[in-house]
Design brief:
Helix content: 55-70%
Strand content: under 5%
Order of helices and strands: HHHHH
Number of helices: 5
Shape: elongated
Radius of gyration: 22 Å
Distance between the termini: 65 Å
Largest sheet: none
Oligomer: single chain
């Protein structure tokens, strides 16, 4: 993201709002944003949103902006990626069962 001149908290909020992926309840988000700036930096909020955009599981809805801010989600660490998805595990198990069946059939 290119550096933007921030002249006020209103400018900072508008820049952050335009960066956040889910635009819901702007008024509540503005209040939560002002509170969040008392706890962290604008850079940390942008970096947190960037991480969230990349790591949010596809099967989960986006957090409302105010929820994300109140929950201090900019501090979230990405979840460990599972070694195998359920689909991959199922396919591996079916292959194993198929091999067992072939061995039994050859006896």
């Amino acid at each position: 993201m290119a550096a933007m001149p921030i002249r006020s908290t209103t400018d900072a909020f508008e820049a952050w709002w335009s960066h956040y992926p889910e635009k819901i309840s702007k008024g509540a988000a503005r209040k939560a944003f002002d509170q969040a700036l008392g706890k962290t930096t604008l850079d940390a909020l942008f970096a947190g949103v960037d991480r969230y955009k990349v790591t949010k599981p596809a099967d989960r809805a986006w957090c409302h902006p105010s929820t994300w801010l109140h929950g201090e989600r900019w501090l979230d660490e990405p979840a460990a990626k599972p070694s195998r998805s359920l689909g991959e595990w199922s396919l591996d198990r079916l292959r194993e069962m198929g091999d067992e069946h072939v061995v039994e059939h050859q006896r």
